[in-house]
Amino acid sequence: MSLYVMKFGGSSVGDTERMKRVARRIVEKQDEGHQCVVVVSAMGDTTDDLIDQAKLLNPEPPAREMDMLMTTGEQISMALLSMAIHQLGRSCTSFTGWQAGFRTESVHGKARITDILPKRVIQALNNNQIVVVAGFQGMTDDGEITTFGRGGSDTTAVALAAAIKADVCEIYTDVDGIYSTDPRIVKCARKLEEISYDEMLELANLGAAVLHPRAVEYAKHHKVRLVVRSSFNYNEGTVVKEETSMEQGVVVSGIAYDKNVARISILGVADIPGVLADVFGALAKAGINVDIIVQSGVQNGEADFSFTVSLSESEHALKVIENLRDHVPYREVNSEHNLVKVSIVGAGMISHPGVAAQMFDVISKQGVSIKMVSTSEIKTSCVIEGGNLEQVVKALHTAYNLDTDAQVFVGGPQDRR
Amino acid sequence: MSLYVMKFGGSSVGDTERMKRVARRIVEKQDEGHQCVVVVSAMGDTTDDLIDQAKLLNPEPPAREMDMLMTTGEQISMALLSMAIHQLGRSCTSFTGWQAGFRTESVHGKARITDILPKRVIQALNNNQIVVVAGFQGMTDDGEITTFGRGGSDTTAVALAAAIKADVCEIYTDVDGIYSTDPRIVKCARKLEEISYDEMLELANLGAAVLHPRAVEYAKHHKVRLVVRSSFNYNEGTVVKEETSMEQGVVVSGIAYDKNVARISILGVADIPGVLADVFGALAKAGINVDIIVQSGVQNGEADFSFTVSLSESEHALKVIENLRDHVPYREVNSEHNLVKVSIVGAGMISHPGVAAQMFDVISKQGVSIKMVSTSEIKTSCVIEGGNLEQVVKALHTAYNLDTDAQVFVGGPQDRR
């Protein structure tokens, strides 16, 4: 007998028919002799519908009241799924985030978990109940309802799995697992049997939407064995764990891309100590996330540097820099928007020198110029023109021996919460 | 400065436009220098939509999970209304039932309030906040979410008004107040300026849907000054309070009717001691509410008796009696379904003998036969054929001097939760 945490995203419980299928899936797991704790997201479009209603009443609704509103989405899912499980003749108890013992810091919209006191969950398991928990939500010590932000239900599942010492945390979604790259671009993308936490973390951070980076971080920290698999079929998924048995010749595990990239360059900045700190301090203060930073050498007491931000934040970033002009003298600022970041990720890169060089070579052989580069121990990212994305991803996929013979067909949009 | 509890029913907050109007109404009250605690029901059809979804998954959903589901309706209303109030530039905090301190017994679907600990409500008021509370819900000492059943939000409002010692509890609905009878039947029905708790209790129990009997009972017990008024205009409503200044010649305050009536008669029952207790004990055990009971005299050691139940429970009641046959011998059972109960209510009946006799006289002059009668200190009810309802109510309304010259126009269905 194993203890499973099973997380189902919004599209897996998108309507009552899907809800019934999920209920059967859970009951099958129990029939195999296992204990089941289920974490569930809001049904399909519920979250968007609630946001739309809120915006009609207040274009900038207070974060506290948004949390009050949004948490009802998961509470509805949780109660309905519990009813569907009862209908199959099983005992089942649902819990809101606060009932399941999720305590958080006092921040609305993106609270971090401070503690989990899963007493009621464990009691219910001991009474042979299936337990259904609302994802994405918790409570502060003052009894305020909070939410975890994007990917919050994944985090609920992983954190709960750690707290109740579950054997496995299964993330059910609408794809079969983690792929070597986006199967919508590369038809012969390969489903990975397993991947390490670190690789998954890089992939998640680099734009692979299947798992939220925060949930992966939590899993890594608490050594929770994660399985990503489809709620629509019984295919084996991808195991995310500490160490993976390195396949022969596989240096790169996956290729990720991010279309949400803009480059900003500041030219002719006076090379005064502290200038970089001033610029990036101001951007941080404005809540803008900076990704890659590249500084060229100093000439005639002036330096040029470039950095990337997400497309949606680029206008804001330009304004921040405009406002700095009196304080930080520079000659010129320019920006570029039609860019993408392509990244190769693989734990094997640590022991295989020259992987980055090979990447540059593959890209240049496609006649594509590399605008910026960023590296870490297990990933290399290149910023290129957006129009070259598909061609470059395909070429890299082939170059790193990731192609399979099989073609992958992907359904709807992936669960994101 | 007065402390107001203002309760808005589901039709008053049926869509975002209505929600905005309610928000303005609350802000106006604050502008007059008052403190406001608002109790809100689920928006329009939300409750029915949730029930429909539940039934698709489980025709008999567990009561606990239904409470989990249903309470989201009020939580959505509460958060949205709070956002609308913020949009008008006011500080506002919303609370779920459990956050507002409603403690209940451990019964799902119709829990009674055991205690109210409104610490957070009072704190928020002291910080000059408008407070919005989700109606209809509370929590057990074990942290289980419960609901109060039909009329639950009225009960929330009245109970909270008592707990925080509010000066007035205003029930906003889609009619202008309490009427002498249903204005949909009698166009010249009169809006009452005031009515006593006892009269209101009888009217509510007898089918007037504007206020739930339980809320009236609570108001009477805690002497909460209630005002029933429209959320769609600024007309004065009806004040419900302990003593009313009796108007000259007004003996009967209101006429109520109930279309949900079935009569069951058991004929030729052996007159053994305990027979009545056996029959009505069995019905009570089956959860069937019996209203009027009439027993005829005993002849030849056999008795006949009749009683009324609600139409929807009559089939079930007949089955219960069928099953009793071995235990309680009787000759025949029959039933009648096309019936209504018409009632006159008035505190003045105590000091004016002959009011009931006058009622029988009015009805018989309409050529309508009375099938059953029931009386209390301040009401008399007659069961008649359903087809005669309108004619009889109009005749009684005129006979007791309740007609006004004005015609009343009534909008949509009344708030029922």
Automatic annotation (TrEMBL), chains A, B:
SUPFAM superfamilies: ACT-like (SSF55021), Carbamate kinase-like (SSF53633). GO terms for cellular component: cytosol. Coiled coil: none annotated. ATP binds at residues 7-10, 173-174, 179, 184. The keyword Glycosyltransferase does not apply. The keyword NADP does not apply. Substrate binds at residues 47, 74. One of its GO terms (molecular function) is ATP binding. PANTHER family: ASPARTATE KINASE, ASPARTOKINASE 2. Tetramer consisting of 2 isoforms Alpha (catalytic and regulation) and of a homodimer of 2 isoforms Beta (regulation). Belongs to the aspartokinase family. Catalyzes the phosphorylation of the beta-carboxyl group of aspartic acid with ATP to yield 4-phospho-L-aspartate, which is involved in the branched biosynthetic pathway leading to the biosynthesis of amino acids threonine, isoleucine and methionine. This is Aspartokinase. It comes from Paenibacillus pini JCM 16418.
